[in-house]
Amino acid sequence: MSLPLLTVEIRLEPDVVSARQRARQIAGLLGYPPLDQTRIATAVSEIARNAFQYAGGGTVEFRVETGASPGMLIRVRERGPGIRDLQAILDGRYDSPTGLGVGILGAKRLMDRFEIESTDRGAAVTMIKDSPRGRAPWGQAEMARVSAELARNAPLGLQEELLIQNQELLRTLQELRERQAELAELHARELEETNRGVVALYSELDENAKDLRRISELKSRFLSNMSHEFRSPLNTILSMSGFLLDGSSGRLTAEQETEVGFIRKAAESLTALVNDLLDLAKVEAGKAVVRVETFDVADLFETLRGTTRPLLAPGVVLLIVDEAAGLPPLRTDEGKVAQILRNFLSNAAKFTERGEIRLGAKVGPGGTVVFTVSDTGIGIAPADQRRVFEEFNQVDGPVQKRVKGTGLGLPLSRKLAELLGGGVSVRSDPGAGSTFFAVIPRSYKEPDEGDVKHEDTWRTAPPRRPVLVVEDDPVDLLLYENHLRGSGFQVLPARSLDEARRVLDRVRPVAVLLDVVLDAGSGWSLLAEMKGSEANREVPIFVVSVLDGRERAMGLGAADFHLKPIGRDWLLGRLEALGAARPLDTILIIDDEEADRYALKGLLNAQGRFAIVEAPSGEEGLRRARAERPDAIFLDLFMPDMTGFEVLERLKSDEGTRDIPVVLNTSGVLDDRDLGRLAPKTAMILSKSAGTAEEASATIREALANAGLNLDPAGPEG
Is residue 718 a part of any domain in this protein? Predict the structure, then answer.
């Protein structure tokens, strides 16, 4: 059974704003918390705007569901031609020409129950938000009160609505990962863009990196401005309360001193929060200044020892600072490194009731120093280990209820470490303590001089077999490199899904180690994409995660699944069990035509397991030949930048490449003179128009044999 409350007609664009305001107002009157009010208002606004834009108008009906599943019901009806591509939208496969296209799907995720009925005469969207937990059932008297309040309180104007939305965004900062907003003008388009940003927050836009940077800049600007505005009244409160407490304005009674003391303590806590917000805003806006200086880790540790001891319970928690002798001096921002470690130590002190806290450092790979802060505290569950580095995110627990914090210390540490070119991570077991890591380069480099081309880290180094590692945690990357050091395998690191796809376009790895929980996207999409690809379907994929997802991983075709952290024996055992340790011959294809390279790769993969490297030009082919030292080269004769004749001459005149067998693969017709020039320098000359598939396969097999490559008699599956 449902009870009617209000119906809003959507005829003009301001009616969309009114529907949003009414949704939030009704949700508040029904007792929903502020965050749910924002979710309901955003979902209503999005669906109502769709009705206005695509159907020319409609109605928004607000009702209350009673009975076994009580909740707030909103039904939006529109009189247009219905919703095209509805199933594709609900499945997340719809690509909107406007670049937005997240309205219906985003609104669905915001609500608890969601249904759409669409015909050629219009559509009806029904959304329900379950009643707040612990809320008594709504009765007729309460419905009458809500209706009376709605009649008395008309919708606000556009400017007031924007102010309320900005307050909602501030309250939900801990969930702001993706949003699109324009805070430059106070008009209808800004309201639409801000609303789109909140919808994008709750949707999972894995590929929206460009918008994320713009949104982050807007958020940082907002935080910076608001932090400055807060500081002035807070300083006044601190100053005035100080005057009152020191008696300069007259003596206070004992009760008054207690009350003013509470005021001052609250102001100090709020000041610390504002300072952290301002630091975060500076880093995210690119305005944080890195003051580079040379310092010793031992001196830094001595300073941290003195500032940390007052935070510990005497005789109950022991601070141990490892010797830093033998560590090279660091040339970076000492203040920011100290701030990272102070946050780690302060966090450890809050959640360690007895035992010890240990501060240490060691030399890391690639010119880094790895700082560690370990404790014997309550520990962190695997599902919460990423959340602790998110703004305003605090893990619930018995100690957390007694310890107050802003939830900004660890996120700020992550931002500062990334600013210095490093990263942070955590290893923890509930009840056994935690270890926080900060990987900091020994010498800071400006972004323009420190941006190493990732392509340099994706060069294969035969005879080692390439393993693609998709991981955005620098500590985990270091762990995997250590696991495979000295083995027959080479780590090709990819810190995002985009980088992983670029590696796969260049190299066919023998295996993939895939973290499915990434900051910039979900690894599940890459797993499904590879298993649906002709070129990469047979590449074994090992899924690793802090969350249990074995059933999903195996269902999508993964070779195996393991919870983090993984051991060296497990990783090497899985690689060798799949036959990935068998040496692969590397083949370099030099051809400017992408379609021809693709066809040749298919023919080669049909004959055996090869590591295939591609070059789209003669110059690139020469460079890759010198760097990769492949076992064979398939060379096209006609390319825009230089002919295959020139490439062949330069290959044979270079001492490092002269012994590599070359197979010519051309669509041109060669005369006797050209054949006479080329035949002595090549293993075989092929024609791209090789007749039937069987003839092409036999020709490729003969060419591989002439080039001296190892062929699997049973083919790649044998």
Answer: no
